Amino acid sequence: MMSILVSAIQAVFLIAVSPLITGIVKKVKALMQHRRGADILQPYRDLAKLLRKDETVSESTSFLFRVIPFVCMAAMTLLAFMTPVFFTGILAPYGDIVTLVYLFTLYRFCMVLGGLEGGSVFGGMGSSREMMMSVLIEPALLLALMSMCVLSNGGTDISSIPTLLIALGSAAFCPALLLAAASFAITLVAENARIPFDNPATHLELTMIHEGMLLEYSGRGLALMELSSEMRLTIFMTMLGTMFFPWGISTTLEGLDLLVGLVAILVKLVVFAFLLAVLESSISKSRLFKTPNMLTASFVLALLAIISLYIL
Amino acid sequence: MSDSELYIALLLLPALIGAVATLLPGKKILISRISLVLCAVSCVVGALSYTAAYRLPLESMSLDIGPLVGGYSVSFDSLSTAMMSMSSIVYLLTLVHLLSCPERCEKGNCGFICLLFMAVMLAMCANSIILLLVAWEMVTLTTFLMTKGSDEVYRWRYFTITHFGGLIIMCVFGALWYLYGTCDLSAMTGLGVITDGLVSAGLILLLFIGFGTKLGLVPFHAWMPDLYSTAPVHSVTLLSTVCSNVAILLLMKSTFLWIGVPDNTYLPIVILTLAAFGSVWGAMESLIQTEPRRILAYSSMENMSMVILCLAMGILFEVEFEGDLTALMLAAAMLHTINHAFFKSLMLLNVGTIEKLTGERNIDRMGGLALFLPLLSMFALIGTLSMAAIPPMNGFVSEWLMIKTVVTAGTGTSVLNVLLPIIVAVLGVCGTMAAVSYARLYGFVFLGRPRSESMREARPMGKGLSVPLALLAAACVFLGIFAVPVVRKIAVAISDTLTVAPVDMGIVSEALDPALIAVVLALVCIVLYGLFRLFRKDKVKVSTWDCGTELNKDMQYSSEGFSQPLVRVFHPFYGDTAEVKDVRGGTDTYHIRFTEPFIRHILNPVGKAVDLLSVHVERMQSGNIQAYLAYLLVTLIVILLAVRFI
Amino acid sequence: MNPEFVVPIDRLQERLQLKLIDGYGIMCMYAVEEGKMSRGIRTVLRRDAEILSLFTPLESDTYDMIHTEVPQTRPYEREMHEMSGLNPHMAEHYGPQRLQWAYKDAYPLQKASLPEERVFRPIPDNRMEGDGIFEIPVGPVHAGIIEPGHFRFSVAGEPILKLRTHMGYTYRGIEKLMEGFTETDRTRIIERVSGDTAVANALAYAHAMEGETEVPERARLLRTIFAELERIYCHFGDIGGIAQDTGFSVPAAYAAGIKEKILRLNEIIGGHRFLMGTIVPGGVRRDISDDSLREIQNRILKVSFDIEELVGMMEGSSFLMDRVETTGVLTHKDAVEYRALGPAARASGVKTDVRKERPYDAYGDVGFRVFTREKGDVYSRMLVKAGEIVESTSIINQCLDQIRPGPLRTEVRTADGLGLGIVEAPRGELVHCAEITEGEIWRYRIRDPSFINWLALERALPGNIVADFPLVNKSFNLSYSGNDL
Description:
The complex is a heterotrimer. Chain A is mostly helical. In chain A, 70% of the residues lie in helices and 1% in strands. By secondary structure, chain C is α+β, with helices and mostly antiparallel strands. Chain C has helices spanning 9-21, 74-84, 174-178, 183-191, 198-210, 217-245, 249-270, 290-315, 318-324, 332-337, 342-347, 354-357, 378-402, 449-460, 469-476, 480-484, and strands at 4-6, 25-32, 40-47, 50-57, 101-103, 118-120, 128-130, 134-138, 150-155, 160-166, 279-280, 283-284, 417-425, 428-437, 440-447. Chain C has a 4-stranded mixed sheet. A 3-stranded antiparallel sheet of chain C has the order 8-9-10. Chain C has a 3-stranded antiparallel sheet with strand order 13-14-15. At the A-B interface, strand 1, helix 3, helix 4, helix 5 and helix 9 of A face helix 15, helix 16, helix 17, helix 22 and strand 3 of B.
């Protein structure tokens, strides 16, 4: 019962903290550019604003267009339930890391179909580019997570990875962990449409990927899409923080441990957000057809991680 | 009459009567309908075979026809009956769909459909080599005859390639007969004690190639896209689903039961390489096709290659782990085959329905159908999600099971260490590529704005068309959500029938509950929807964002454009050539051409020879059904005589 | 005075082809209305400092067009068709170039009053056919705060097969307005042709009006300083824009900061951030104090370091270099054939700079280099602009050294005939042609460099991917309103 409650709290925590993480990234980026930047709470205000608005919907869209924001949000909520945040145990067999990857696929698939709705060129453009990247992102993601399974030697169960990694202690710090984490970090950046893969702040329709697919959304539909993409970023960071560097996470349900876990994950999220902002400020967006090279690098890193585990 | 005899009679006789009925002169439509209904009765009986095998209990039984043709015996094991049931359901729903397309109900075609059903059932439950070979030949022949209407070159290509496979299969079973000294399949429980492992390995490899011709294993897939795109859609559906089921089942049984897995690591690696390549190739090629049917053809190739990959992994696990995970891998293969049958028939019939209602076959003239045929688009969406392995649909569960089993295998011998990550990567790559291809299929057929007027003028879909689609769609959802019990049953059937260790179901049931996933997803959606309903806001209908210029039908992404980035990334594999002709003052033109290297370098030379041959064979073709049936009979008799006196 | 020749219409093509072989380039071409002058086509050619002006009398509105044979005349013939009603049957397949809302049975530059009714000129449909070809319409409403223009790409995926630009959303009828009004008003109008080319336009206007008038030395030096300050801030904006469009936010913010500082300097010295109202025919409007001159000197000193820092920052990023190199190549051949102008041409290896070839104001008295690059890609254009910033600082420094107290303005004696103002604006050669009869302007023609370079942009894009278009566009950074007028 207690673990169900904690799981629910974890999910709510992830949903609640996602806009804040985006706010922090934006703020740090602004500071790097010598701008004052918007308040870190601005994403919440934006969401509230969007939720209050009426929607404009293209007349060439089908029922799917209206359903997609709900499904995207549902996929992210389910992922929030599945991801360990400050406590390792999870509620029930929703699935394992393989399911996790496929839920991201569900999310992306919906986004892509949403981009094709309405028949605008920019939506199709975003969808087509997103699909190009996804072909390389997903296997890399799968391999990176698989190498963690092999490293922790605990099967594909999500919650056992942090537990077993902590149990391994300093022995967990092997090349495989770093390789897998590096691969995952590249995937994080790519999957969340960040520079150098995509520019989240661009206004140029012709260069858009993620934003292009959202172009037809407005009002509350847009609010859900924005929130779910903010959640995706946070979930990825949380996964990096709990499955690759789990130290600090609580393995028991005791108050103090949970508190430590909470603080740890908050610190990790802020650090990751800061690093992401620094990364985004220090490089430019890559050429569209050079992104596969980076993704291949991520793929190879993940493959190396597993093979190094077997060989070393 | 024993239960078994009664059951067999019920299973085969209606279809047989249906087939014979088509020979009657008289009102074509009526007779076709009657024969289809009779075949449907057989299908219903076939669908019950799994239950029947448990309830009745059906013992294996033999039908001795006399000294000339030997003992025809059939047996009902749980694996075969499971496959028979599932195939029968698909068959039945396809028939229902066909019944609503009167223009497709030709007498001859209906007769062949009845015969095909018999052949399929017999091939699945055959217990003697002769029966099996005869049934398999019948499957090949009837499907060939059912593709009438397709281009002759494509038909004969299919005929040649699958008969090449059939020949290999015949040789292998002949060898088995020779080695075991009997043609009774139930007596075959592994060659291990009889002969060298290398012989087994060779036989298995040959079998994979032989059945691979039907399944579209690289490079024998060359007949698929062309035949799929031109043959009648129901024939294609049966060919793609039911016939593949037979091939996979026979492959599984002969590898793991009749021949037995030899202790040889190279065998699975060779098959694995072929299958991995084939699945990625199929996914990649399906991306550039502009006809929905061709997309689905390559998708069949991809899915079947994935199943073969699973079988190869099963062999590998059997060799390396002594059967620890084999059953699970085979269950994944089996489940995926069944799932494939459902979603592929759903999608093919869907495409057939679109063709019937709008008359369009090219994806670049479609678009926006979701607005005009909303119900059809729902079914297609379910089919697409299943094909793309999106949770919680059925395709997801089988792909999950594949990856899960591979990942669970973890460390092993050095071969596995290197292979497993690569296999995961291959599964990941081809899964995502296929997902891209299906997103493209759905997106460009059903979403966006119409690219031709025929979309707007689509005729409404009748009940007869929508009911089978609805049931197939429901089956896709059902098999996804209630996958765990299904997997359990399949795993039990596999370990019962084949000589592999039973499955530890904990690996599955503790890791995945698609029902729970479905419930959570649905709950969140419903809660959000409820909240949105509660605090209602206005919706304003506007036109799509156009930057201030009016959009015409050309101003949206084309399907070629959609896949172009991937084509560019994987440029070396596609062998595409694009040219822009700059005509000054006139219209500039742009052409892109893809040539499949297999077709160009391997099959075209062979194909030329076949073409030459087919010119001579063409004289045999009178277009008369009786003549075809006579050929069929003659062929069978020749085979039987040959087999009898060898 | 420049020599003027009368060429009959049937000889025009041959004559132009010969002159182009001789090394002349068509600088401007426009139609003149009947009335105080005879109806005809004026063609102005230039080879370095040599100006050649041809006049082709016309009897009717229709003549055999020559742009298929002489590509340089293509934009001009389109313009004459749109604005002066020549060749009313000219194939509509080019679509609007300067005018989106045409007059029914009338054309904007006619001397008779214009009807109220205007019709929207449709953009011609796709003229590219093939497998999976579709069109991407972009604009006139863009997502960012930029000028309106319509781009239409024919693509089959990412690579651009064909681009057509359709302008005319900011048409204000400036050429027509210039025919009336007093000189003060005209200066005001001309400065507003294109916001960031205020100085260059005012300067060209002044030159067109001044004719042989001798402008005082202090005024000439000040004009040069103003023109170079304009170039510096424009180029900083462009380079920053390249960084911005590649999502490289830190250099973009840095460049924006420097640009802002120069704009503030402008406000201090000229009273206007874009230096409007500083240049008048005959000189400059107001003097600059010694304090301000020192201020300029201080600021300019920093600028040369700033540009080094900025370019260093951008070149240090391999991602950015990967994006700018080999992107949007304008080949030397195309640059010559279409007579591309300014930094865009110089980046393609065409050594053209009015300041050097036909020095005006103080450019004859200062030393500077003309920057060229060979490759014609985005990176070359960026480097050319960066190099020009450095040269501009040197020019300003030399001017500041030479500047002495003296008169600022003289009386302008406007002579009848063709008044030409040719200056090197930040975007390239800017030409103002004033047909002056009886002391009044009969026809005023402004040929902004963007008018030509939009065609160069169309040539530079095929083969690039759609996602790189904003970057290539930014590297040209053309003016929409300068084109539309």
